[in-house]
Specification:
alpha+beta, Rossmann fold, Dna Ligase, domain 1, D-amino Acid Aminotransferase, Chain A, domain 1, five-stranded parallel β-sheet, 15 helices, globular, binds adenosine-5'-diphosphate
């Protein structure tokens, strides 16, 4: 097992990883930008190293600075969290060359799944159903038109290097296609420095259902059920739950088994999430994330499994501490992503948190690095807290979630707590009859 892990991240996820290490008797090294000198993960870690100025490019994405920090502190592994360098295959390779373990899959698997065109082909070859679309990237507009006409409109143009909902455009009809291609290419070039795009049938009312898997280096692969992440604003998840109100137990088990079989074929190592759109009783693979996800606590709450602990264990070469038959799903869990944003127009609201009181009680978990007096910096993602609630049924979970949201005090800045209260009081949400487009429509209502 590792003796010292460097956590190459910030905020709640740095704290989450620190907690798992601490419970495993592993020492931790925090790295931070000058803007994060007072951050909670820096305060709690055994050691800390400043790696650069506020801009993420100069700090949390600064590979030489992170490697130097690992070398000076003699860390034997690096946990990348999510975002930043977590899906950077070069980073995984470089640190391996320095004799440091990357807590994640191999560089080869990160690279494969990072290219969504290749990822789709690999998923199809491993036996997973995919969204009908172009076989590979489209080059000319004329080719794209021929393929789009064969698939049928509406069409979604997606960036091969995509992530975070960027580089995605819908063409409702033939007339929109050239424009959608140009816009998606431009956005993809700006965000990923790669303007390759591909086409998919645009699904009108799907749900986003994803399967959590974990694999060790001894050929064991286990799935930990699904998460429903259909509540999205501009293709970004806002609230996640498990089990999905749209699936029954049999559907979940069949999909999970199918995914575990595919992952075994790929020879994958570590935690990963295989994402699907679900419409008309059919699942369609869209992508695989080769890292820990923001919404992993939802799965932890219903399975009782510490995913980060298992992730660290399998990275060190240990076998999974449980088999598929040991995994049971108890009750219902929901996670609300709380951001430092205006709950009406989503303008960022960085600034000083004057009062802070986190909710508690049975079944309530708060993953956050906030404290009274902390100033939310303007440089990074606006996620400041994840409130995760567990109940024996969805109904109990919802009642508890309302109570916990009402109890939450984050004074001094505006947050999206009021949005979550609105959402969980809405009949469509309570009935579980929402799809991936529901939230954008809800937010656009003039009466809100
Ligand atoms: P990213 O990597 O940018 O997150 P994904 O491929 O995971 O991109 O898609 C993000 C979201 O975009 C999905 O959860 C879904 O809401 C929407 N989406 C993706 N593909 C389609 C599609 N073919 N039809 C309709 N919506 C889609």
């Amino acid at each position: 097992m590792f003796e010292k892990v460097l956590i190459a991240n910030r905020g709640e996820i740095a704290l989450r990883v620190h907690r798992a290490c601490r419970e495993m008797g592993i020492r931790t090294v925090a790295v931070h930008s000058t803007a994060d000198a007072d951050a909670m993960h820096v305060r709690l870690a055994d050691e800390s190293v400043c790696i650069g100025p506020p801009s993420a490019t100069a700090s949390y994405l600064n590979i030489p600075a992170i490697i130097s920090a690992a070398e000076i502190t003699d860390a034997d592994a690096i946990h990348p969290g999510y975002g930043f360098l977590s899906e950077n295959a070069n980073f995984a390779e470089i640190i391996a060359e320095h004799g440091i373990t990357f807590i994640g899959p191999t560089a080869e698997h990160i690279r494969l799944m990072g290219d969504k065109v290749q990822a789709k082909a690999a998923a199809k070859a491993a036996g997973l159903p995919v969204v009908p679309g172009s076989d590979g990237a489209v080059t000319t507009d004329a080719d794209a038109m021929a393929i789009a006409t064969a698939i049928g409109f509406p069409i979604m143009v997606k960036a091969a290097a995509g992530g975070g909902g960027r580089g995605m455009k819908v063409a409702r009809t033939k007339d929109d296609l050239a424009n959608a291609l140009a816009m998606a290419r431009r956005e993809a070039k700006a965000a990923f420095n790669d303007d390759a795009v591909y086409l998919e049938r645009f699904l009108a009312h799907p749900r986003h259902i994803e399967i959590q898997i974990i694999a060790d280096s001894h050929g064991n692969v286990v799935h930990l059920g699904e998460r429903d992440c259909s509540l999205q604003r501009r293709h970004q998840k806002v609230l996640e739950e498990s089990p999905s109100p749209a699936l029954n137990r049999g559907e979940r088990d069949r999909l999970g088994e199918r995914v575990a079989t595919a992952i075994r074929k790929l020879g994958y190592l570590g935690v990963g999430t295989v994402e699907f759109l679900y419409e008309g009783g059919e699942f369609y693979f869209i992508e695989m994330n080769t890292r820990l996800q923001v919404e992993h606590p939802v799965t932890e709450m219903i399975t009782g499994i510490d995913l980060v602990r298992e992730q660290i264990r399998v990275a060190s070469g240990a076998s999974l501490s449980f088999a598929q038959r040991d995994v049971t799903f108890e009750g219902h869990a929901i996670e609300c992503r709380i951001t430092a944003e205006n709950p009406k127009n989503f303008a960022p609201t960085p600034g000083k948190v004057r009062d802070y009181h986190a909710p508690g009680g049975l079944g309530v978990r708060v993953d956050s690095a906030l404290y009274a007096g902390y100033a939310v910096p303007p440089y990074y993602d606006s996620l400041i807290s994840k409130l995760i609630v567990h109940g024996s049924s969805r109904n109990e979970c919802l009642m508890r979630l309302r109570r916990a949201l009402e109890e939450y005090v984050i004074g001094g800045i505006q947050t999206t707590v009021p949005l979550h209260l609105e959402l969980i009081g809405n009949a469509d949400f309570v009935n579980g009859t929402y799809d991936i487009h529901w939230l954008d429509r809800f937010i656009a209502q003039p009466t809100r």
